[in-house]
């Protein structure tokens, strides 16, 4: 960690390093150091290994920030235990697992994570699913699946879930996120007009509106930025534009964020 102190918006932001080489990830992380709390590695960790990724990127995150290994693990209880033990032991502060795992697998992963000062976040339903696909595969609508999996995770001791921006209001209304930290990927800023080359998700909302929802409900949450920053010609400038737009939305509504990093900072 580099000892830099984040602004309140940066405390509630993660950055997905998807599709990048390790060198590209290092360059971007260095350029945005002190501006964002959490760095998320998915295919990068699969390619280079969580140990190398965490070791290299940890020096580029601010004080109390963390590396999220987005493994989306879905396996037997023994494998979940060993995977979580290794990823947590390598210094990852957050690791993702599917809440569709068996009860024993999730409890095993929870125990291993706790032993390594690592937090688990539970994947509800991936944001790329359409309503039709959810009904075809799970025989339940998204509006049924996501609350059910969120409640399941909460009952098993999870302190965080990953959900889409469109699912967030319903989970709040049902009281399912009390004491939980939602992590919201797939949003798009109002500063980005053309999203045609950014792999837009089915279930999405503006980044600014998600921050408004979190602040209105006095909720600690992490919003994950991705391709609109990583694919920008000037990545640092784009991040600054998004953060300024978020701040305007909060100011327009008389809202403020609690100045601490959700999940990682007690």
**Cα-atom Rg, whole angstroms?**
17 Å
Low-confidence stretches: none
Class computed from helices, strands and strand pairing: alpha/beta
- Quote the beta fraction: 5-15%
**Biggest beta-sheet profile:** 8 strands, parallel, barrel
Mean pLDDT: 93
Termini separation? 17 Å
Widest sheet, order of strands: 1-2-3-4-5-6-7-8
Helix percent band: 40-55%
Tally the beta strands.
8
| Tally of alpha and pi helices | 12
| SSE series | HEHEHHEHEHEHHEHEHEHH
Structure description:
This protein has 266 residues and is an alpha/beta fold. 42% of the residues lie in helices and 14% in strands. The protein has helices at 8-11, 22-31, 43-48, 50-57, 77-89, 103-114, 131-138, 142-155, 168-173, 207-216, 227-230, 235-252, and strands at residues 13-16, 38-41, 66-73, 94-98, 119-123, 160-162, 181-184, 222-225. The protein has an 8-stranded parallel barrel, surrounded by 5 helices. Strand 7 (181-184), helix 10 (207-216) and strand 8 form a beta-alpha-beta unit. The longest helix has 18 residues, at 235-252. The chain is globular and about 45 Å long. The two termini are 17 Å apart. The relative contact order is 0.15.
């Amino acid at each position: 960690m580099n000892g830099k102190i984040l602004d309140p918006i940066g405390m509630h932001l993660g950055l997905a390093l998807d599709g990048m080489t390790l060198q590209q990830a290092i360059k971007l992380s260095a350029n945005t150091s002190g501006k964002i709390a959490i760095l998320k590695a998915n295919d990068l960790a699969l390619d280079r290994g969580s140990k190398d990724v965490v070791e290299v990127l940890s020096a580029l995150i601010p004080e109390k920030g963390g590396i999220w290994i987005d493994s989306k693990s879905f396996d037997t209880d023994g494998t979940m235990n060993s995977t979580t033990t290794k990823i947590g032991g390598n210094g990852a502060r957050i690791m993702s697992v599917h809440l569709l795992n068996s009860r024993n697998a999730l409890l095993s992963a929870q125990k291993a994570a706790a032993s390594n000062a690592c937090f688990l976040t539970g994947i509800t339903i991936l944001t790329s699913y359409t309503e039709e696909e959810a009904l075809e595969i799970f025989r339940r609508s998204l509006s049924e699946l996501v609350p059910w999996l969120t409640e399941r995770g909460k009952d098993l001791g999870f302190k965080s879930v990953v959900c889409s921006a469109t699912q967030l209001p319903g989970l709040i209304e049902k009281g399912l996120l009390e004491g939980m930290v939602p992590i919201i990927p797939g949003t798009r800023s109002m500063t980005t007009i053309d999203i045609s080359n950014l792999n837009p998700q089915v279930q999405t909302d503006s980044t600014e509106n998600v921050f408004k929802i979190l602040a209105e409900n006095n909720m600690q949450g992490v919003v994950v930025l991705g391709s609109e920053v990583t694919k920008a010609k000037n990545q640092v400038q784009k991040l600054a534009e998004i953060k300024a737009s978020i701040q305007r939305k909060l100011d327009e509504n008389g809202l403020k964020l609690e100045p601490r990093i959700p999940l990682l900072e007690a």
